[in-house]
C-alpha cells in the first residue's frame, strides 16, 4: 500500500487522505497511519509543487554545475557536499559516477548571479578542483510532466461501443 | 427499375444500426458534454510502441506480411499467452493476427457457421456479435446474463437455449458493458456443461489485462477439456491502448486457425504491417506500462463506484474492463430515457445498457477511461440529476 500511496502523492500531493483511501480501497485511518510512518522514516520528505518558473519570471536561469573535488579523509564526499548544499541558491546536489564528482543544480536571476556564485563561493572551497557550468535553455519535461504540450485534446469520439 | 437501395441484400437491409450509434449522433452535436461513454483507453499508446512504429516507417518496412501475421509477432503472442494465462499455442499453426478483435470475431463466425446453425450470444455484450452471426448465415440466440449473478454466465442461463443446432457460443469476459469477470470457479461450471457437447466456445478476451482487486484473468482455454474447442479472441486495443492501430489475434486448434486464415487471406490479406511491428515491441517491453494503466483504472473504478453508491444507485463491484454498470431502476426511468435526459439536462453522455442487449435494460454503462477529475465532475452532474428525478417522483 505504501508504494501505491507514494505513487499517488508523487503525482499529486494535494490528494487528501480520504481520496487516497478511496482510490486504494483502504480506510482513511490506514492511509493516514502509513503516511505518518513514511514521514517519520524520511521517505516522504516534503510536499512541493511543480512550477514552470519560466512562465512566471522573466529573469530566471537554472544551471547545472559539474564539480570535481578531492574527498576528505574519513569524511569521503559528505563533508564537501554539506559545504555546498548549505547555500540557499543550491537546489539539488548529487554525487555522481563518471567524469566528475558532484552535480550541483542551482537557480538564479541571471547568468551573472550564477557565475558570481560559482567563482566566489563554489570554486573558492578548498576541496573543489574544478567546475563546469551548464545553463538550461529550455525545460521540456520535469518530474514526468511534459511542459511543452502543444495540444491535449481528447480526440476520442464522445460515445463508442 | 430498381432503386439503388433495392440492390442491398435483405440480410444487411434488415440489420439495425447499433443503438450506440444513434445516441452518439445526438451527443456529438452538443457542446460542453462530459462523456463517460467511450469504449477505449484515455492513455496514449506507450511510447516504445509508437517509437517502433516510427522506426518501421523510416525504414520503409511497409510491405505485406504473411497472411497469418509476422512470425516474430506470433511468437511473442504465444509467449504472452504462456506468461499471462499459462496456455500454450504453437506460433506457426495456432495464432492468427487480425485487424482488431472485431475481425477475429467476424472471421471466426464465417469459418464455423453454416446456414441454419445457431450461435448463442451472451448479452449484455459488445455490439458486433449478433450481426457477425447473421452475416455468416447463422441464427444468433441471445443468452441473457443476470444482475443477480453480477452478470457472470451461469449454466442455467444457457441450458434451455442449447439445441442440436447449437454450433457455438460467444461471450466476452471481462465484459463490455457490465465490467463482469468470470473467475476459475465460474468457468468450471460452464466447462462442465460444454465439455461433452460438440459446441465451440468463442471467448472474446480483449479486456484480459484489465481485472482488478487481486483477480487474475481466467481464460476458458486454461481448461484442458476446452482448449481445443475454444477460439480465443484478443488484441492490443485495450491492454496496450492501441485502439486505432487495429490489431488483434485469434488462437485455437490448428485445424480451425488454418481455415480461419483462409478467410482472412481473401478478405484482409494481412493486418497492418506497421502495427504488427510496433506490437512486437509492446509485447517485449511494455508489461510495466500495461500494469501502470491497470492500476490507474482500478483507482478510478473505486472512485466512480463510491460516487454511484453515494447517490443511491445500486452498482455491483465490477472487477473487469473499464466499465461500471449501475442500475437506474430506482429512478423509475428506462435506460434510454435516463440517458437522453441526462445528456440534455446535465450534458453527461453515458451509454444506455439496453443498447448492448435487452439484459442491459435498467442499467447504464459508465466508462472510467477518464481522468479522476473528469469522473468526479461527471459524478456531480449525475448526482444532481438523480436527485432531481427523486423529487419529481415524490
Question: What order do the helices and strands come in, and which of them pair?
Answer:
The complex is a heterodimer of chains A (161) and B (394).
Chain A: H1 2-11, H2 17-24, H3 28-40, E1 61-69, H4 78-85, E2 90-95, E3 102-108, H5 111-122, E4 128-135, E5 141-142, E6 145-146
Antiparallel strand pairs in A: 1-3, 1-4, 2-3, 5-6
Chain B: H1 10-13, H2 19-28, E1 34-35, H3 47-58, H4 71-85, E2 95-98, H5 100-112, E3 118-123, H6 129-135, E4 139-144, H7 155-159, E5 166-172, H8 184-194, E6 200-204, H9 224-227, E7 230-235, E8 248-251, H10 254-267, H11 273-285, H12 287-310, E9 323-324, H13 335-346, E10 348-349, E11 351-352, E12 364-367, H14 372-393
Parallel strand pairs in B: 1-10, 3-4, 3-5, 5-6, 6-7
Antiparallel strand pairs in B: 2-8, 7-8, 9-12, 11-12
Helix pairs in contact in B: 3-11, 4-11, 5-6, 5-10, 12-14
Model description:
The complex is a heterodimer of chains A (161) and B (394). Chain A is α+β, with helices and mostly antiparallel strands and 161 residues long. Chain A is 32% helix and 21% strand. Chain A has helices at 2-11, 17-24, 28-40, 78-85, 111-122; strands spanning 61-69, 90-95, 102-108, 128-135, 141-142, 145-146. Chain A has a 4-stranded antiparallel β-sheet with strand order 2-3-1-4. A two-stranded antiparallel ribbon of chain A has the order 5-6. In chain A, helix 2 (17-24) crosses helix 3. Chain A is extended. The mean pLDDT of chain A is 90. Helix content of chain B is 42%, strand content 13%. The mean pLDDT of chain B is 96. In chain B, helix 3 runs antiparallel to helix 11, helix 5 (100-112) packs parallel to helix 6 (129-135) and helix 12 (287-310) packs parallel to helix 14 (372-393). Chain B has a 7-stranded mixed β-sheet, with helices on both faces. In chain B, strands 9-12-11 form a 3-stranded antiparallel β-sheet. Chain B is an alpha/beta fold and 394 residues long. At the A-B interface, helix 1 and helix 2 of A face helix 2 and helix 12 of B.
